[in-house]
Amino acid sequence: MKCDILIKNCQILNPDFTISEDCSVAITNTLIAEIGNIKEMEEKYEPKEIIQGKGKLLMPGFVDGHTHTCQQLLRGRVSDEYPMVWTRFLVPFESNLTPEDSYVSAQLSCLEMIKSGTTAFADSGGVHMHRVADAVIESGMRAAIAKSTMDMGAAITGAMKETAEEAIARTEELYKAYQGAGDGRVDIWFAIRQVMTCSEKLIRTVAEKAKEYNTGIHAHLCEHKDEVSFCLQNYKKRPAELLNDLGAFGPNLLTAHNVVLSEHDITLMAEKEVKVIHCPRNNLANHGFPKTPRIVEAGISVGLGSDGAAPSNLSLFDEIKVLRYGTIAYWGLTVFDPVVLTCATLLKMATQGGANAIQHGDILGTVEVGKKADLILLNIDQPHITPSQVLANTIVEAASGHDVTDSIINGKVVMKNREVLTLDEEKIKAESKNKMKEIITRAGY
């Protein structure tokens, strides 16, 4: 029997986070066709391509549930800075990006994500998202792409600020041009940047249009106290209540950060099946400790996001560790609860939680027959990983993006033995350096 790819002699991370050994996996027509015994699979299949899995762990690709690919070339600039970073750096930077800047930035983002084990992501948007979509198609990645929409806020200037009508029209244009592109890997979503920069009219229209197009909504929610204070002063409601009353709350809403949620907010989000994304490093560095254990206990699907590379990198392996240690220190040690957030729960967030957030939880997030072949292989035959008494725990505590050797997305090999096959790494790095210098000059900081 023919198949596209045969991964031979690997270990597999199962949906329950146990490990299966001595396995081979056949991939056909973008899907996981069969998982079985090494010898039987070798006798049964005639693969077009073979990936050697000895000494490697096969697991679902990570899904970055909240990132900003257009901020890739801002890396290193916002750390060790006093507020307001948003008005002093982010707004001037994003306002001065050209379409070509956005394209190169997105290429660099995809390159970094692939090399650190991420196979899909949700981008909350910038100005020139058609060029981001072009980079995603080229890279082989999967993405839910939104165009940033803002129609109010004194600090918002230039191309970032539009009327509600303009914001909606441009997202509709993007949807019609790119929805389903890249063999179905690209989805186009609507966006609510946040309640302080989006009018009631814009939020309500986004909710209506997302329903009309049967697509998702990407929003920043309860990221910091100023946002809650603004909402209470202007609407006499908390941000979650406002979005719910304007029709935006539902299973198709992805909310990023979620640091200052009230108990009522959490209950409301659970009832409406809103998807939560935490950005651990940015949250802990700027806003505080989210009620992650309570959110998980409420039955809400939680995923992880990098929030872009401006302060650090795009590695979800790093986000996992920060959320684990921060949650134990803040919510666990105070009440003597060392298992307040388990390793298995964290792996689920980085895989199934992210898949749920981008509306593909039924086809992504686990290594199972019939699911999409969005997979990564980790080199576990290394002193910092093997031997391990509980391998899933060791992956959380000790593994990094540098341990990822191979990446398969939508049934196609995107990286093999650490070489990205879809993107020209050296060219992208060189172009990125030049673009960064040009943007800094234009932005004037």
Give a structural overview.
With 445 residues, this protein is of the alpha/beta class. Helix content is 40%, strand content 22%. It contains 16 helices and 17 strands. Strands 1, 2, 3, 4, 5, 14, 15, 16 and 17 form a nine-stranded mixed sheet that branches. It has an eight-stranded parallel sheet with strand order 6-7-8-9-10-11-12-13. Helix 4 links the parallel strand 7 and strand 8. Helix 14 crosses helix 15. The N and C termini lie far apart (61 Å).
Core attributes:
about 450 residues, alpha/beta, 8-stranded parallel β-sheet, about 40% helix, globular
List the helices and strands and how they pair.
Elements: E1 2-13, E2 19-28, E3 31-37, H1 38-44, E4 46-52, E5 56-60, E6 62-67, H2 85-95, H3 99-115, E7 118-123, H4 129-139, E8 142-146, H5 164-178, H6 181-184, E9 186-192, H7 200-213, E10 217-221, H8 225-235, H9 239-245, E11 253-257, H10 263-272, E12 275-278, H11 280-286, H12 292-297, E13 302-304, H13 316-332, H14 343-357, E14 375-379, H15 391-398, E15 404-409, E16 412-416, E17 419-420, H16 425-443
Parallel strand pairs: 1-4, 1-5, 6-7, 7-8, 8-9, 9-10, 10-11, 11-12, 12-13
Antiparallel strand pairs: 1-2, 2-3, 5-14, 14-15, 15-16, 16-17
Helix pairs in contact: 3-4, 3-16, 5-7, 13-14, 14-15
